[in-house]
Design brief:
The protein is of the alpha+beta class.
């Protein structure tokens, strides 16, 4: 029988919704200080070149310019790890990059110099006074070409920066037993995060000599990176996070923080830096484009027997998080299916394209497009219903994955598919030129970071004298309800109203470290930490109340700011009375708790043969599309998404994540095409790079399943990233159903669909 909760899982109002609607939130760019300077970044206009000459003297002499910095002014120009304070020993190169380019530029838009001036106009004018002369160098823009021994080298002697493998069973024997084999090559694009808020921040040096940086970031632990750049003790740099207007992984890597720290340190004045939409388009990382070669074999009754895949990701010009993204891709490459014989080779390759790094889905999206396309094509070759084929092969609780990890939680994929397809209903009627199709896709997505990272999260909770509560946690709030979840947990366990709970977050020198808001780890990690802290406090309260009531602690419950005696509805005591009694006896009702994720031994070989993640979220999404066969235009008519999230902490927020993730994934599948030509970005703004609007996405039916089997608080699972993973293949499978042609290169723009109908493919 499911446990009844007082607050958990309800549709709760948000702590900042009204202020966001009214425009009262002070976002990073809204913040100002007296005497503040304005910064700009001078960037490369060549994708591969040597800097022959760089003259900033005119810019430095320009009236109103306070500071111009080049690589020579950076104490430690190659010290940013871009792996958020964790290991840098990933792949063949350390995951570092130059703060400012010194002798060579490796991608269009690479930072070369920084300017701080009295006004933004002066700073922009000074950019035009910097004199630079390039010697163009050979570049490489195709990852397959970059893998060749004679290709131009981006760094060092090898453009392949990471390689991971899966090896299970004997793939040759598996294919020999297969009655049908399907082989295809798929391509996925770069994707721009397109968050509404640009990268932004303000920095200043306080009266204690500490460099303060108030910025929109998913990782306040970047203060360590800034300190390393400046050659200062970690204690001399402080990052204060803001409410964030969208991140999606785009604010996981360091962005403006090092630049702001440098300029404030050099000028001893407050400095603001905010990227323009143009800079967001070409001056910061994207989702990795992939080339995926898949070969899948099955018996005539639909049992999968073998999978062989080659996966190649374009890392761009710097390592960033590419080795980790590739690791996620490799582990997830089989899909949520049991396949006895697997051989996967995955590579991440440097090119002179714009760098690529973290993005919602983190490597699981690209492979989902491939494995779900393969499953649909197998079903057609076998003349089998696509759902029946998948049912025969779904992972089950206790099953073993291709990296020999046992699935420990429930797998509700059958229910998810049924519910999603039922939500679509009967197929709409089409016409001679407007074809209608329905399709679905399944996915699995890890939540929480890799288990060999010793991941921890800390939280401090205090119960105040009036029965209100304070939570301190370093967790950034991206708008997904990260703080909301914490106060919901506190309210449930301590019997409070959510409005009586204040969450203090994202201050590297004040709040306990919660770790990054990435990898769908926030609720899992910080939620468990807050739950543990609340349980400590709850025990102290219940023990004291039991003493005051003359009852056993085992039959007491906290609700509505009272301690109730179960089975005795007329017997209770006010929570505030218990708190005051505790205070009089010196019992401090506060707790600092640490949650430690399950830990496994580090990966010591490129063959992944041990558990990598703590758990997975299983999902299914379904789409109905209309395809105009005369123009190739795809219109989405219906959409449904079903996810087992273990337990909903706040139902409104969970559904919001599902809807937002689906919309973003739909854009990835049919609209968003980030184009570079020989390393030159062509679609760097939102006039050329099209993202879905409300007119492009129908009402998304969010279906929340609750197995209660997750490793988050109260059995919750993560939903932030799983919400996006199945969207693109669901839409592409619906297009295949409509027109009988498989789109293998996304996005499925009208041009690609039109030419596919003509029998031509890029």
């Amino acid at each position: 029988m499911a446990k009844e909760y007082n607050i958990l899982g309800k549709r709760l109002g948000g702590m900042d919704e009204k202020d966001k609607v009214l425009g009262n939130i002070v976002y990073a760019d809204d913040f100002k200080l007296p005497g503040m300077l304005y910064a700009k970044v001078f960037r490369s206009t060549k994708p591969s070149a040597r800097i022959k000459r760089l003259d900033v003297s005119k810019a430095r002499a320009y009236p109103g310019v306070a500071c111009v910095l080049t690589a020579d002014d950076v104490p430690n120009n190659e010290s940013i790890s871009n792996v958020v304070g964790q290991t840098t020993e990933v792949g063949l190169l350390e995951a570092k990059h130059q703060v400012l380019a010194k002798d060579r530029v490796r991608y269009y838009g690479e930072p070369i110099a920084l300017i701080a001036a009295e006004t933004l106009d002066i700073a922009e004018e000074a950019l035009g006074l910097i004199d630079i002369e390039y010697e163009e160098l050979p570049g490489v823009y195709d990852p397959i070409e970059a893998m060749k021994p004679d290709a131009p080298k981006i760094h060092g002697d090898n453009n392949i920066i990471a390689q991971w493998k899966l090896r299970k069973g004997n793939v040759e024997d598996g294919f020999a037993r297969a009655d049908v084999i399907v082989e295809n090559t798929y391509r996925t694009p770069r994707q721009e995060h397109a968050h509404i808020e640009p990268e932004s921040g303000v920095s200043w040096v306080d009266d204690m000599g500490v460099i303060n940086i108030r910025s929109a970031t998913q990782v306040i632990e970047h203060y360590r990176d800034v300190a390393a750049v400046l050659g200062l003790p970690h204690s001399r740099v402080r990052i204060l996070g803001t409410i964030i207007g969208g991140g999606f992984g785009g604010k996981e890597d360091i962005t403006v923080e090092a630049f702001l720290g440098l300029l404030a340190w050099k000028t001893n004045r407050p400095v603001k830096l905010t990227y323009t939409r143009e800079e967001m388009g070409y001056g910061r990382q994207k989702r990795h484009p992939y080339i995926l070669k898949y070969k899948t074999g099955a018996t005539k009754d639909g049992k999968l027997v073998a999978l062989e895949a080659e996966i190649i990701s374009d890392a761009g010009a710097y390592v960033y998080l590419s080795p980790w993204v590739l690791l996620y891709s490799t582990v997830h490459s089989t899909g949520p299916y049991f396949i006895p014989n697997v051989k996967v080779d995955a590579y991440s390759v440097l090119t002179n394209n714009i760098m690529t790094s973290a993005f919602r889905g983190f490597g699981a999206m690209q492979v989902a497009f491939a494995y779900e396309s393969q499953m649909d094509e197998l079903a057609r070759v076998l003349d089998m219903d696509p759902f029946e084929l998948r049912k025969k092969n779904f992972l089950k609780k206790g099953a073993e994955t291709a990296n020999y990890q046992r699935i420990e939680s429930e797998v509700l994929l059958e229910e998810a598919v049924r519910r999603a397809m039922k939500a679509l209903g009967e197929k709409s009627k089409g016409s001679k030129t407007k074809r209608i199709g329905q399709g679905f896709a399944c996915s699995w997505q890890s939540y929480g970071r890799m288990t060999y990272l010793h991941d921890t999260s800390n939280a401090w909770v205090s119960l105040e004298m009036d029965g209100s509560a304070i939570v301190r946690s370093g967790i950034p709030d991206l708008g997904g309800g990260q703080r909301e979840s914490l106060r919901t947990i506190v309210a449930e366990l301590l019997g409070l109203d959510v409005d009586e709970i204040h969450v203090i977050s994202t201050d590297s020198q004040v709040t306990p470290f919660a770790g990054t808001v990435t990898a769908t780890r926030a609720l899992y990690m910080s939620g468990n930490a807050v739950k543990s802290a609340c349980e400590d406090i709850r025990k102290m309260v219940v023990d004291k109340a039991a003493e005051m009531l003359g009852e056993s602690p085992d039959i007491l419950a906290l609700k509505d700011k009272k301690v109730h005696v179960s089975g005795k509805p007329d017997k209770s005591i006010d929570l505030v009375k218990v708190i005051k009694q505790c205070a009089s006896e010196g019992i401090v009702l506060q707790s600092l708790a640490t949650f430690r994720a399950p830990f496994t031994e580090p990966i010591t070989t490129d063959v992944i043969k041990d558990p990598v993640f703590a758990d997975f979220t299983f999902s299914a999404q379904a789409a109905e599309v209309e395809v105009d066969v005369e123009t190739g235009k795809v219109r989405l008519l219906k959409y449904a998404a079903a996810h087992d999230i273990g337990k909903a902490i706040n139902l409104n927020r969970a559904e919001g994540q599902i809807e937002g993730g689906a919309a973003q994934g739909i854009g990835y599948g049919i609209m968003e095409d980030y184009i570079e030509e020989k390393g030159i970005p062509l679609t760097w703004n939102l006039a050329q790079y099209l993202i879905p609007t409300s007119k492009d996405v129908p009402d998304i039916q969010s279906i929340v399943l609750e197995s209660g089997s997750g490793k988050g608080p109260f059995g919750a699972k993560g939903i932030g990233e799983p919400a996006i993973t199945a969207a693109a293949p669901a839409v592409i499978n619906a297009i295949r159903d409509a027109i009988g042609v498989r789109i293998r290169h996304i996005p499925a723009t009208p041009e690609r669909v039109y030419w596919a109908l003509k029998g031509k493919e890029e």
